[in-house]
């Protein structure tokens, strides 16, 4: 394929990530409403929220510095970059050699780093509390995430996401105990990293339990819109990384329009199923106390390490 | 080698100029920067040309001349030392002025130059004699630098601890060279003391192991590996900040240099468990170093503990390289060695930058305690920006330099399944897990540092006039920050440049693989395996940020500034912010069992209703368990021994006469 059409593929994928991520969040909310017997606001509600926020003026605390103002842009930029790297529709993605899975985890860490700094920048107890808790959770979640991904990459003999997908897609690995451990750890960590129940509650405000929301409490207007959009994309990307690592079937092996269209349909179906899973977990579980989280994240870390050990010993 | 001569002559300058201290600072530090630049160029040329130069000096003891040698390894470390000492010397031009009018800086200036000269000589030395002499020059001059602000008892105590551990380490190194040299030439001939003789000799495993363990102890004491790290968080904070930058940034690296020199160059053949030991030590240092760092409230002490962690990461690379080298896997050994060496220069850059930043903060506020800082980003925008670069680099976030070396180390871990030994197989996943955990904790530690020092409101009670750092200080920090970014976005160029070192010592290079495409891409082994492009990451993020900014500012909404939302209570004050202790509290709770923590809250004053206390006292004491497990017994033992020996000295002449009489009898009987 020519360079131009490869470029086009990447732009297409970015378009999908940027445009469809609010719909995914809308869909999760709809399912959640239905499962709790409420009437939902519809699939389009996140889009309406975003456009309203973009139109609003900004109210900013007196003491904040440029860190606070630049954070939404940095976070958005980082997440867009990741959206261009993860193989979502096709294996043959031109941007994919830019970063392997370790880099992707580190890129998410940049977003978290600046979010935490912005939380400290306001100079209130809430912001600092959010940052402190977020960094504690990250300190436990990030290694577990890496270990779970390492287990897969050991089987695939590569850390490049495209290559992993390629290996799994062509059926060179079968379901092994190490991969099951890794999958369990990955699910637990994804819930933590995207700030869902049982780790954090995305729909809570003004509670002492909030973590991510506490850091961005002082944001408003287009800044808040960018942060919200980035966190929607984050959920979308984590789900698609999970799909790519564990269930890549249906992705386009070669770039052609029918292949891409089929891959798109597969992706929509898989995301719909994953959302149902998230909703089941969120309705079934209560949010944990902060210091119970160490057990939860420690268990994920242990599972992932077990996965890697079992790869080294059994396979 | 000219640079060493210049540095020694720079020592003389203060002698003539000590009356006009301002001129002395300017002249000496300019000379020191030129000398560092020369060292940097000499080292750089040696690495580029892959050449080896030897000189035998006519100095030294009779029949034992000094040998100097500049090869790729020493050239590389000359570059590391030269680069950072260039930046720090520029920085010192401004920083040391802060002492003018407070105390005489003559000793600081003299020992600064000697310290630099000592470090250059350590890496140039090619025989045991001059190596130890340079090592001692380095140790003693840094001792005098640590004790520079000697009116505080705590400083003198820290410097003494430093001196003791440095000398125990030096003795171990001396014995290690003795074990190597004694076997090469026997006791009759003294030519075994040159590194050339050691290089060419066959070392029997038994003695080589003794030499290795002694060298590991000696160099480890200098590098600050756990459990020999206790001097580091004591000595680094009390030294002047430019000196702390050099001590943490490059002095620790001379120990890494010594370890590589002894293992890969002098001994050459070793069993795999040597590497295993270094790997284990590296892992323990990595995780313990960063956990200790997280608990600290003293800015410079935190940075010192974080050096322990980074030395750990370097040792992980070197240990892995030794394991693979002894198992005859040259490509992996080369990759691991390159990762370790890369982290060496990276750590020199960002730790130097962070200590310089800490120095600027100290200069401006007179505070080292983070609990009393906050909001400095408004008064010190430049320092804050440079310090942020340092924080991002040390937290291993792309596209800066710290990430690249950790990424390479992860790649080595993931390549290790090709080994058969089950013990190594068990060690590898644990190693990868520890490294991942340490990386995430480092990010937490440096969010804390930057957030508490530069963001929020001023937390202290004292109101001082805070000023931005002056021009030379900004220049020094700025250059280091640029180096951090450059090393992060152009890793392939750099790795290709140092490829001579793995080529020479482990017999394989990574250049062909690393440069398989072009400078933009870093893909060790093969591009299917893994690849990373720091430059593209940097550019794409920048482009998206700018594009978003422009799109959103076509028709911008207004930005209003208002007071912080206070939940309607109107009594919010700066004491309600999160500070260093409270930020670390969740992690302290999680990993608390590793420390000895004593925490208590006492009600100091109370009103009628116990629900509304007026004044609370909160005390928190965190101690290093290693101190009480390892050092406390040693201290007690040595006091006990000296008390017992003290009994011999009764102070009565007839007792002493009996002692001499008895010794004569014993000598007569047994000789």
* Structure annotation, total helices of chain B: 25
The topology string of helices and strands of chain A comes to: HHEHHHHHHHHH
Strand-residue proportion of chain B: 5-15%
- Strand content of chain A is under 5%
SS element count, helices of chain A: 11
Main sheet overview of chain A: none
What class do helices, strands and sheet pairing of chain B give?
A: mainly alpha
Shape of chain A: globular
Biggest interface, CB < 8 A: A-B, 83 and 85 residues
Q: Can you offer a commentary on this structure?
A:
The complex is a heterodimer of chains A (315) and B (671). With 315 residues, chain A is an all-alpha fold. Chain A has one domain. Chain A is built from 11 helices and 1 strand, in the order ααβααααααααα. The mean pLDDT of chain A is 88. The longest helix of chain B is centred in the middle third of the chain and has 36 residues. A two-stranded antiparallel ribbon of chain B has the order 1-2. A two-stranded antiparallel ribbon of chain B has the order 4-5. In chain B, a hairpin with a 2-residue loop joins strand 1 and strand 2. The radius of gyration of chain B is 27 Å and the shape is globular. Chain B has 671 residues and is mostly helical. Chains A and B meet through strand 1, helix 3, helix 4, helix 5 and helix 9 of A and helix 15, helix 16, helix 17, helix 22 and strand 3 of B. Strand 1 of chain A pairs parallel with strand 3 of chain B, so a sheet runs across the interface.
